[in-house]
Fold:
Amino acid sequence: MLKRVETTENLDLFENAKQQFERALTWIDGIKVGIIDYLINPKRTMHVRFPVHMDDGSIQTFHGFRVLHNRVRGPGKGGIRYHPDVTSAEVTALAAFMTWKTAVVDIPFGGGKGGVVCNPKELSRSELRRITRRFVAELGDAIGPYTDVPAPDVYTDQQTMAWIYDTFDLMHPGKNNLAVVTGKPLDIGGSVGRESATAQGSLYATVQLLKRSVVPGIESLEGARVAVQGYGNAGAIAARLFHAEGARIVAVSDSRGGISNDDGLDPEEVLAHKNETGSVVGFLGATEISNEELLAYDCDILIPAALECQVRADNAADVKARLIVECANGPLTMAADGILQEKDVVVLPDIVANAGGVVVSYFEWVQNLENQQWDLEKVDGRLRKKMEHAVDEMVDRWIGLKEGAKKGTVGGGSAPTLRDAAMVVAIERVATVVLQRDIWP
Ligand code: NAD
Structure:
C-alpha cells in the first residue's frame, strides 16, 4: 500500500478554480480589476430546499444548487450531479470551469452547473424521479432553452434528463421545450453521439496533442499503456475508445476500488462485469489495486475520469504517467499541477480534454431548436473538428506564452502549462465579449 502524506492543502474546488484563473491572468495584459472580479465570481447562485415523499412513507428534505456562472457568450450550460458530497462551492467551481470550457472550444454558451445532495445508490428509481421533478419545479425559469441548459454529470443520466425535460415541458405547455436540457434519450430529442461524446472528444484531443509532439516520447496511442480512474460515462467509454485506437488499458477503477493487468484489460468485458456486479473489482484475471495505487500506476497515460481533487500535493509526486488527460472536472489541485510540471508530466486540461460532451450538447441544442436530426457522421465530424481546433489553439498559445516568458514580458517568472494556455484563450474570449457588449448600464 502507498503511504498517504498528511496535507494542509486547500481542497476547496472554487479556491482551486480561482487560483487557476489568477495564474492565467499573469499571462494576460490589461484586463481591468472590475472585469476580473466579474469574470471569476458567479452571476447567480440558487440554493433550494425541497421535501420529497420517500418509498417508506417518510418525508425527506433535499438541498439542490444551480449556479449560473457567466452568460455573456450565451445561455448557461453545464451538468447536474447527484452525489452526497455536493456543496455550493463545488457547484460554483464546476460552473466556472464550464464558462472557460465553452469559451475555449468556442461554442455560444456560458457556464452553469447544478447538483443535489443525495446518494443515488441508496435511492429507488421512483425516489430519484420525485427528487428530479421537484428540483426542476423549484428552479422554475432559472433554467430554460435560452437561459441555462442542464446536462448529465456524475450519477445522472439520460433518464434524469428525460424527467427534467418532461417536468419543464409540463410547466411550459404549447412550446418546443426540447432544448431546455441536453443528454436526453434519442427518442425525445437526444443527439446521436452524445452519450460517448465526452470520451470521444478526449480521444480526439489526445490524438491531436500527441500529433503536435507536446508529450516527449509518445507520438501516438499505439501500444501506449493507459490507466483510467472512474468507470462511468466518461471513464468506461474512454477506456473502450483508447483501446480501439491501439492503447493497452492496464488499470481501471471505480468508487469501490481498482484492478490492473499489465498484459491489458478488455474494456468491454470489464464493463460487462461492472454491469453485472456493480463494480470493476473482482474481474477475472486482474490484480486488485486501490484508487491511490491506480493514480500512481506505471503507465504512459493516466485518465482521471471520476471526481475532483484526486491528484494532490500528497500524491502527485507518485504519478508515473507522462501524460494526464483530465476527463473529470478538476481532478488535479493547483499544488499537483506545480509538482507535475516539475516532473515534466504533461497535463491535457479538463476544459479542453472533456469538452466533447458540451460540444455535442451544443449540437443537440441546435437540432432541438431547428427540429433537425443529424446523423452520426455529421455529429462526429464536427466534434472532431472542434476538438482538434481547440487543441491547436491551446498549443499555439502555449508556444507563444513560452516565448513571452523567455523575454520576461508575461508569466511573472514561471513557465506556462497547457492549462495556462487554455485558460488564457478562454478568458480573452469571454473578456472580449464583455467589452463588445459593453455590459454596463
Ligand atoms: P458517472 O456517474 O457516469 O461515473 C462516475 C464514475 O466514477 C463511476 O464509475 C464511479 O464508481 C466512479 N467514482 C466515484 N467516486 C470515485 C472515487 N472516489 N474513486 C474512483 N472512482 C470513483 O459520471 P461521469 O459522467 O462519467 O463523470 C465523471 C467525471 O467526468 C466527472 O468529473 C464529470 O464532471 C466529468 N465529465 C462528465 C461529462 C459527461 O458528459 N458525462 C462531461 C464532462 C465532464
